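user: can you give me the structure for this one chain? tokens are fine.
assistant: on it. calling the predictor now.
[tool input]
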Amino acid sequence: MPAPTKAEFDRLRKLVAIEDVDARQSRRVDEVFTGNELTTIPIGTAEDVEKAFAKARAAQVSWAKRPVKERAAIFERFRDLVLRNRDFLMDVAQAETGKARSAAQEEIVDMVLNARYYAREAQSLLKQKQVQPLLPGVVKTVVNYQPKGVVGVISPWNYPMALSISDSIPALLAGNAVVVKPDSQTPYCTLANAELLYQAGLPREVFAVVPGQGSVVGTAIVENCDYLMFTGSTATGRGLAEHCGRRLIGFSAELGGKNPMIVTKGANLDVVAKAATRACFSNAGQLCISIERIYVDRSVADAFAAKFAENVKAMKLGTSYDFDADMGSLISEDQVKSVSRHVDDAVVKGAKVIAGGHARPDIGPTFFEPTVLTDVTDDMECGRNETFGPVVAIYPVDSIEEAIERANDTEYGLNASVWAGSKSEGEAIAARLHAGTVNVDEGYALTFGSTAAPMGGMKSSGVGRRHGAEGILKYTEPQTVSTARVLNLDPPFGLSPVLWQKLLTPLVETVQQLPGR
């Protein structure tokens, strides 16, 4: 099966929120597997962003007035269109990112899960809620959830569909408009889904895609949006958070990770060794929640390392647009250089390579073998820094306490994985880990796929959460409305102001003694 055709890309190109598309300066978009040009993408400007926001603000007013049920129906239709067009969407994802088809399918599953969850739950999550008032029976207090306005989404190249579209779905369902800046390497992943959103009935003005440089288009989005959703590096996230702070707008971000896995002596090593290949090397390790550190009880560390290395060496790398390959390519030459630097630095300083360790230009220009290291120390570049590639280190530990301590000894806290002798032991370990998501007897997919539960990072791994109630309510402004049903707080029944003030605190104290207070 070949890559999508230029004609298919040209159709999507017309969906960018830029005027005079064909007259604009463009950037090449290459097929990562081969390095050959697929097509081009027009380069947006700050003025393009401002125009997109102006149209979005005008359209958002009427969009927010539409009943939630009516908005939700659009995303149910979008879900069906994604399933119907999943082969083409996976082709686009593979062409632009170089990922294996299994990783491309993860994006389809993610969008389908999010569209269904929020389409069905949005009405309940966003409905007006009556809460306990100051004086029961005398006052009624409710909370409304108003949309922020226009949300800016800056999405990355590693999961360009899931992290642009799935993050936009709850924002749109909450009544906001959205302006997206896709990564310059993967713009058509977003545009291919924008086409389906428009076909499902989403007004084009409330979801605008403006491709371009981060320093230009990204900056303009931050300067114009009412809330920012960002996925990317911790360093960039800090800068964007500072910018949002100066503007006093909300900010949510999923950032870097140096994610640990713990394997106890009671775990089934055959099962763990097989599952760890997915946990570490899905999307060639270019996944914020993939595993980069494995802490194994010393009594079984050698046995686990041997089994894991055997599984890793058996992994098939390939460029096929089908499910034949276990792992695909890295995204770019820069990424290959970065991964190579981490591995070479570790080896020079004494680490041992027990699987992989080399670039594979014989397969494609940016392929790198899935790599397993031992004897890694903190002075090595891959010791404490996120590699964001197919490299993982195994560390023997003398106890569960040591494993937990070392797993938590990092500035990051995004995801973790635990494999123990029993579910209860695994869950007990999980509760002590400083990570936003922890998977017991799995690597990362269970928590990421649990769309009813919040997902995000602790410490330097992020701010805010996606998924669950938090994932949609963050795009709203809670508004409290209290109504005096019987009387207000002026002195009632002819009481003097002085006497009323003396009675007020005892009255509040009495109310607090009522059942349910």
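assistant: here you go. The domain at 6-255+468-476 is CATH 3.40.605.10 (Aldehyde Dehydrogenase; Chain A, domain 1). The chain has 18 helices and 20 strands.
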